[in-house]
Automatic annotation (TrEMBL):
GO terms for biological process: phosphatidylethanolamine biosynthetic process. This is ethanolamine-phosphate cytidylyltransferase. Residues 67-196, 266-355 form the Cytidyltransferase-like domain. It comes from the Eukaryota. Its EC number is 2.7.7.14. CDD domains: ECT (cd02173). It comes from Iris pallida (Sweet iris). Coiled coil: none annotated. Keywords: Membrane, Nucleotidyltransferase, Transferase, Transmembrane, Transmembrane helix. The lineage of its organism: Eukaryota, Viridiplantae, Streptophyta, Embryophyta, Tracheophyta. InterPro entries: Cyt_trans-like, Ect1/PCYT2, Rossmann-like_a/b/a_fold.
Length: 427
């Protein structure tokens, strides 16, 4: 095979680029791979590598751009951790959100959340730099060409769980063949199948309807009729496989406190089944100050005031909130009542509450915001969305049989995974 000078530059720059990522041992492997692929990929993707070569010796390389896609339905901390890992493999993370049509074609069932809701959730994560809506489920040649040339993607990332098309082929086969694929570890203890199972096995449609009515009445007692509330006692949780560690919390945390003159904004809640409504209210709250502190009520507190446990337990909910780009710090297991001592301890400037609330008391108890109200630092803010955890659960129950059938197939593979589970290193 005869190689001209332009091809040699393409090959050599690829070797130099990968040396920084892989070390000396990676040079020979990369060089061999590039030599074998040069005839085909030089024609299709040459100018990406030329861009790097043209920067010249001694100049800073451009940021490494990585791409990861997914359905991101019923988004949870496992999704967030996957994107955190993907971001650690590069400098800029571009995320593709698979279209509703592609999900139906490949999974046989429409997502619970709309495209708009899924985009809000993905865009609200602190590790995400850019979002591509309506991405294809399969990394086909046309889309891979778009990623490499228009979005300047260096690597395509996916988890270590297989992603198969209806015909049984690998959705990432082309990316692997191109040598531009990297893999991350699956986050243990949670999956969309697991969450669907918790909802399906614990929630009855009649309970949701009753919860909506009861919660609206009880919240009006607290807010003078301005607040709609999530269901009281409509959601129960089942056993979770998640084992919280301090390391995972540190990975999700910003790791810094407020400055000496920062305006600290405090908002609290249950934050169950973290959804687009949560992202938007947190965005609104952050705009009122410099540092957003979020109180997350314990499972026991939620159970006492709603009559049942949340779907996601305290540490799961805490990670979902911590992953949000608008959140600076969380109080894990925050008290329901905002006290003077708490306001002083955290130097809180303003306490906010949305017009759509979840997990409100139904027992006519003392207003938990009485102290900040008496101090003149309480503020009600308009909730940008009327979504609640119970309304999302309601969507699932409205299509109960379809989701039940879907979960029967998926649950079998989940059981098999845990039965045959082996240790895998990674984050």
């Amino acid at each position: 095979m005869e190689i001209d000078s332009k091809q040699w530059r393409w090959i050599w720059d690829g070797v130099c680029f990968c040396r920084e990522l892989l070390g000396v041992g990676g040079i020979m492997i990369t060089a061999a791979a590039l030599l074998g692929l040069s005839n085909y990929y030089n024609k299709h993707y040459y100018y990406y590598w030329a861009d790097d070569a043209d920067q010249g010796k001694g100049k800073r390389k451009r940021p490494v751009r990585v791409y990861m896609d997914g359905c991101f339905d019923l988004m949870h901390y496992g999704h967030a951790n996957a994107l955190r890992q993907a971001k650690s493999l590069g400098d800029v993370l571009v995320v593709g959100v698979v279209s509703d049509q592609e999900i139906v074609a490949n999974k046989g069932l429409a997502p619970v959340l709309s495209m708009e809701e899924r985009l809000t959730l993905v865009g609200g994560l602190k590790w995400v730099d850019q979002v591509i809506p309506n991405a294809p489920y399969e990394i086909n040649e046309t889309f891979m060409h778009t990623l490499f040339n228009e979005y300047k993607i260096d690597y395509i990332i996916h988890g270590d769980d297989p992603c198969l098309l209806p015909d049984g082929t690998d959705a990432y086969a082309l990316a692997k063949k191109a040598g531009r694929y990297k893999q991350i570890k699956r986050t243990e203890g949670v999956s969309t199948t697991d969450i669907l199972g918790r909802i399906l096995s614990s929630l009855r449609g009649a309970e949701v309807e009753k919860g909506h009515a009861d919660a609206s009445i009880c919240e009006q007692n607290h807010s003078g009729g301005n607040t709609q509330a999530d269901s009281c006692g409509s959601i129960k949780s089942h056993l979770s496989h998640f084992l919280p560690t301090s390391r995972r919390i540190v990975q999700f945390s910003n790791g810094k406190g407020p400055g000496p003159n920062a305006r600290v904004v405090y908002i609290d809640g249950v934050f169950d089944l973290f959804h687009a409504g949560h992202v938007e209210i947190l965005r609104s709250a952050k705009q009122l100050g410099d540092f957003l502190l979020v109180g997350i009520h314990s499972d026991q507190t939620v159970s006492h005031h709603r009559g049942s446990h949340p779907i996601m337990h305290l540490h799961e909910r805490s990670l979902s909130v911590l992953a949000c780009r608008y959140v600076d710090e969380v109080i894990i297991g925050a008290p329901r009542e905002v006290t003077q001592d708490m306001i002083t301890t955290f130097n809180i400037s303003v306490v906010v509450h949305g017009t759509v609330a979840e997990g409100s008391s139904c027992n006519g108890e003392v207003d938990p915001y009485a102290t900040p109200k008496s101090m003149g630092i309480f503020q009600t803010i308009m909730s940008p969305k009327i979504i609640t955890s119970a309304s999302i659960a309601r969507r699932i129950m409205d299509n109960h049989e379809a989701y039940k059938k879907r979960n029967l197939k998926k649950t079998a593979s989940e059981y098999k995974y845990y039965a045959e589970k082996k240790f895998v290193s990674g984050d």
